[in-house]
Amino acid sequence: MTAQTTPRFAASIPERIGAIARRDITIEKSYHFRLFLQFFNALFTVATFFFLSKLVGSSEYLQQYRGGYFTFALVGVLVTQSSYLGLRTFSSTITREQDAGTLEILLSTPTRLPTLMAGTLIIPAVFTAVELALWFTIAVVFFDVRFPIIGLLIGLPILVLTLLVFCSIGIFAAAFIVLTKKGEPFTLVATQATTFLAGAMFPVALLPGTLQVFAHMVPAYYSLTALRAVLLSGHGFVDTIDEMLVLAAFAVVFLPLSMVTLRRAIRSARVTGTLANY
Amino acid sequence: MLHVDQVTKVYKPPPPLLRPFVRTAVKKSVLALADVSFRVEAGGIVGLVGPNGAGKTTLIRIITTLLEPTSGTVTLDDLHVDRDGHEFRRRIGLVLSDDRGLYWRLTGRQNLHFFGVMAGLKRAEAVRRTTELMQEVGLAGRDKLVFGYSAGMRTRLSLARALLIDPPLLVLDEPTRSLDPVATREVGDMLRRLAARGHAVLLSSHRLDEVADVCTKVVALVGGTIRFEGAPAELAADRAGSMEALVRLLTQDTEPA
User: How confident is the model at residue A21 (pLDDT cuts 50, 70, 90)?
Assistant: First the structure.
């Protein structure tokens, strides 16, 4: 056998994404105890919200939502967990690859950056989906909560759009990590904006008027409004189109912009020689 | 094959606005490479020698598309490192120094499967090449999590990873740094076999005995400039003896009589 002068390259993008997913699930499986603990974490967190809802009682701010504070907070958790997934996956992957010294090797292969990013998302997305399903199953089985099936189906595209928006912000965060190695402001700001301003844990109506204006600038506000409408208020698909369009607009603007930013950050690290630093 | 032409690299500190966020090793501009030019032909093993800080790793990173030169060009056949980066990467196998660049919680085979697909092989082809290469580098029947491998086994696995796509050019950055003499000799034997098959090999090292033993040509870098280029016999280890002696020798050679 002699060295090839014209190598044959045939692996498709799905094959490459699949290889990244297989790598990640194999590594995750080597940490057996984590999955076991995840169940207990879900059980006790759901229980905490259940008893907290007893304390909150039937506030006038929650009258439009079926199930009171318990289901209101569960939807908040659904959105915050999805936002964490999008926000943290890419930057933590880059940090992990820098630590292991595999980032340089990966970037010296002919697999393109968007493929690497997409592949990286698969297993964390599966884990988050399983975790959220677990939360909702625990709520249904142990705490007698009911969600309309049609609401759950309409909720899926809303969640996908939410994930796309937060992935974009996560890619901005990853770009910052490529340059700074540790510490980026995007995750903190987006997380606080989601939990505080957007109304993940309490209705936005409780905020002072000025802050309510800012709430409308946070993507999670639209996710939460739309999901609560279909899951807790009996609204249909048509009633959530406005929110979905806003989320889609965020994604259309942020996603390409974030990819360009990440490319530029990697290019900058290639110039300064800091690509492998950590 | 590989043509490095007047490559210069200056590391600059980040712009003032970015300095609070971006930390680099340099506080002022540092000339890492100055007008470096040489060739690596198919079937040849070129040794890149020089003391720490000579610019070897900088040059390796430029050739493997991980670092952009300030000026100059690197071409591989008809491909330009900046313009054709994607295609360029399809023709290079890279081995980094030490144990970096492998997933320690995957087995050797799993590492090769993964990097095979990332390098562009279809899954079945990646499996086939993995079996072939595990045999070739002496790791067949010794498949386990990489953190259970010795340094020598990890180096051999890294070499196998670099060979997955059977690249025309193999670039190795101090692959034997943490290996014992026996393992070092095994790597040398492997490189000779690869060169005999038509691979071009660029081997960065600061071990003169290794370079004299394995390479067909030597490029000596000192302070970012080439101070010697020629046959290993002309730069025999017994003339220089050690890297310090080599640096003294090469520095003296360039001083006016």
Answer: very high
- Determine how β-strand B200-205 pairs with β-strand B45-49: parallel
The lowest-confidence range among A196-200, B142-146, B202-206, B237-241 is: B237-241
The first and second tokens of residue B192, run together, are 């000779």
- Write the residue in A23, A105, A111 that is nearest to B101 by C-beta: A105
Neighbours of A112 (CB within 10 A): 12
pLDDT in tens, A123-158: 888 888 888 888 888 888 887 888 888 988 999 999
Is residue B2 packed enough to be buried (19+ CB in 10 Å), middle (13-18) or exposed (0-12)?
buried
Whether the Cβ atoms of residue B165 and residue B93 lie closer than 8 Å to each other = yes
B177 touches chain A (CB under 8 A): no
Chain B residues inside the 8 Å CB shell of A100: 100-104
Strand bridging mode B71-76 / B79-80: antiparallel
| B22–chain A Cβ distance below 8 A for any pair | yes
Which residues make Cβ contacts (< 8 Å) with residue B89, sequence separation at least 6? A108, A109, A110, B64, B65
Strand order in the sheet with B169-173: B92-95, B169-173, B200-205, B45-49, B217-222, B225-230
* pLDDT (tens digit per residue) in A27-59: 988 877 776 777 778 788 888 888 888 887 777
For residue A16, the model assigns a pLDDT of 94
C-alpha–C-alpha distance, residues B156 and B136, integer Å: 9
DSSP β-bridge partners for residue B46: B202, B217
B11 shares contact with chain A (CB less than 8 Å): yes
The tokens 């806003």 sit on which residue?
A246
Of B44, B8, B92, B31, nearest in space to B218 by CA: B44
> In the numeric block, which tokens belong to residue B119?
């390098």
Mutation target for B interface from A108, A112, A274: give the one with most B CBs within 10 A. Answer: A108
| DSSP codes joined into one string, A153-164 | HHHHHHHHHHHH
Contacts of residue B83, Cβ cutoff 8 Å, sequence gap at least 6: none
Q: How many CB pairs under 8 A join A and B?
A: 149
Q: What is the C-alpha separation between B221 and B239, in angstroms, rounded?
A: 17
For residue B194, is pLDDT > 70?
Answer: yes
Sign of the CA dihedral running A108, A109, A115, A117: negative
For tokens 């600038």, what's the residue?
A: A217
Using alpha carbons only, what angle is made at residue B156 by residues B93 and B228, rounded to the nearest 5 degrees?
60
Contact between residue A175 and residue A264 where contact means Cβ atoms under 8 Å apart: yes
Distances (CA, A) of A227 to A99, A154, A219: 38, 8, 13
Cβ contact A161:A33 at 8 Å: no
Cα–Cα distance for residue pair B63/A147, rounded to 1 Å? 58
Give, for A165, the enclosing helix (H) or strand (E): helix A149-180
**Contact check, Cβ <8 Å, B167/A3:** yes
Q: How far apart are CA A154 and CA A172, in angstroms?
A: 29
